[in-house]
Input
Amino acid sequence: MGEIYWTIHLTSEYKDRIFRQNYRFLPEFRKEKADRIRSEEGKRVSILAGMMLWDSLNRHSLSWDDMVIGEEGKPEIKTGTYYFSLSHKHQSVLLAESEKKRIGADIERVTEFNNAMAARFFSESENDLLNSLADEPEMQARVFFFLWTAKEAYGKMLGSGLKDGLEFDAAPYGRFVLELENPDTDKEMEVCTTFDYSEPPHEAEQCFHFNDKLCMYPVEFEKNGEHWVVTIVTEE
Output
């Protein structure tokens, strides 16, 4: 298996009985997580995330018994031979996995640019980048969500979550996303825009070397008329 793989599934792809059947195979910490969610859709998303992780563990000859809860509360494999990151938004669930490197991933549906959130949580350079796109609202929203997913993914890679992600300045990554719009961009670095849901996992090949410590994989796709962005962050 290669370095970095990712999988996206939608809860709408499965019938209710699939969730009922698979719930019993989840470990207690995943069951408790699902049980705490009040909405039925939220429970389905949580169960689907567990189903995807269970399948991935099986493919790597691992089981729930190989998993421990880290100091920051993040589940991880105690042998250090497999790393993963789960993220979900609405009906979409993302699983990113690696055999060699710590990994973090986040998925977001692109809506409108949130100026108030950017002003509160983003760095000066990130806001400068977004403000430079004021005349291009679609691009501004797209870059906003790429920056946000980068922050989320970075925090997940560290295992500390968004508290460290918010301190991470992702502006160089935003510039890279903009460069993808340039027709002279190296074809091998283009963002993935299409894939077949029926044959995951998908190998992540579009690595952007953020600095000498981090590599980022941007992914974009459309489903049911909605535009989604994903960022996967790993150690170099």
Q: What stands out?
A: Residues 179 and 185 are 7 Å apart (CA to CA). The chain has two domains: 4-103, 105-194+223-235.
